[in-house]
Amino acid sequence: MKKKTVTKKPNQRHYSRVNTYMPMAVRRVGAKSASELESRVERDAFVVDFTTPPSLESASLAEVFSRLDSKLSAILSLMMPEKKGFMALSFRVMNLSAIGMRFHSSEAFDPGELLEMKLVLYGQPHVLLTIYGEVIRSMEQKQGFTISIRFVSETQEVRDAFLRYDFAEHRSYLRHIVEKGGRDVNLLLVNH
Predict the structure, then answer these.
(1) Domain-by-domain residue ranges, the chain?
(2) Contact 127, 75 (CB under 8 A)
(3) Closest by alpha carbon to 100, among 117, 87, 88?
(4) Where do the H-state alpha helices sit in 13-129?
(5) 45-71, pLDDT tens digit by residue?
(6) pLDDT, mean of residues 18-28
(7) Is there a contact between 166 and 127 (Cβ–Cβ < 8 Å)?
(8) Low-confidence winner among 32-41, 118-127, 146-155 (lowest mean pLDDT)
(9) What number does CATH give the domain 18-51+58-191?
(10) Rounded to an integer, what distance in angstroms lies between the CA atom of residue 78 and that of residue 45?
(11) What are the helix (H) ranges across 79-166?
(12) Which residues contact 100 (CB under 8 A, 6 or more apart)?
């Protein structure tokens, strides 16, 4: 019996992929082709709040803060992000590289569709990216869809922002959030 030799293919990726958890928003764009779009690093000021409320020993104080949090959430939802220049970004688990990403969505997207994504690389300072991508794959899951994107119209400035970003420091921050019992419902408001 002849023994089969298995040859491993070398990793042909130019950029490494990282599983991460970041604030992001996604929407369809009406562009007919990728040449009409240009990804960019946003220069406008934006507000970032990644704080997780502390756990409180006092039940009455916790109730007061919970009500206050609910009222603030209601006020923010009434601001109508499209009219006030604010956009809410929710945290998502994603697989990210300098040339594409994969994320979970409750909404289906068709292969070939062009999407705009707002993504915050947080650190000192925080960097807000507006990135355009083409849907490569949309796989239905039990709850929602797994969407794979290839970035299009990406500028060197955006690619450099990814390459400069310290994912090791980011992982350390995520571990800290998990240990403190952080919430997945955190939202971020971005002035755009």
Answers:
(1) 18-51+58-191
(2) no
(3) 117
(4) 59-78, 81-84
(5) 555 555 555 666 777 777 777 778 767
(6) 84
(7) no
(8) 118-127
(9) 2.40.10.220
(10) 22
(11) 81-84, 156-164
(12) 133, 136, 148, 149, 150, 151
